[in-house]
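2024-03-11 09:14:02 INFO queue: dequeued item Reelin domain-containing protein, len=167
2024-03-11 09:14:02 INFO validating residues
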Amino acid sequence: MIFAKVCLALALLIGADAYSSGAPESACKDMIPRHPVEAQKRPAPYKITTSTKVVKAGTPMEVTLSGNSPSDTIRGIMLQARGSDDKPVGTFTVSPNDPLARLMKCDNKGDTITHKKHDAKEDKQTVTFTWTPPATLNDVVKFRGTIALNGAVFWVGVESAPVKVSA
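2024-03-11 09:14:37 INFO prediction written
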């Protein structure tokens, strides 16, 4: 029995570390990390908010992910803006010196943000990114995220309120 528990703990640690440098490309569509455990079923202690509810196409805006309490830190992320066709749209901007996040390409370069390998001291309760919609977009988007407290505790499908993008 103890051997089985040790093996399970080892598998969780190895699996969690497998994506410590960001989401795999296989997660682009469903945003489900390939951790050896399932996503949490209880409501997420995180929210995604935007700097505006209406934005002109081609105009940058801010998107913030935040934990509801100081203990709800962000260890891992995957964030996209999704239009009515449910595909990633627009481009995020992340500083190359950002200790937590990096850009990822799912359909187009910079359409997704994921985490990079970092020390736990770099975990944040709140992170803010800049997103720019395409210059010709005329749609309603929602920001959808997968947010991990750690490798074994994560939530898929955290969404913002809708944002109207007008060309």
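2024-03-11 09:14:37 INFO annotate: The helical segments are 2-18.
2024-03-11 09:14:38 INFO item closed
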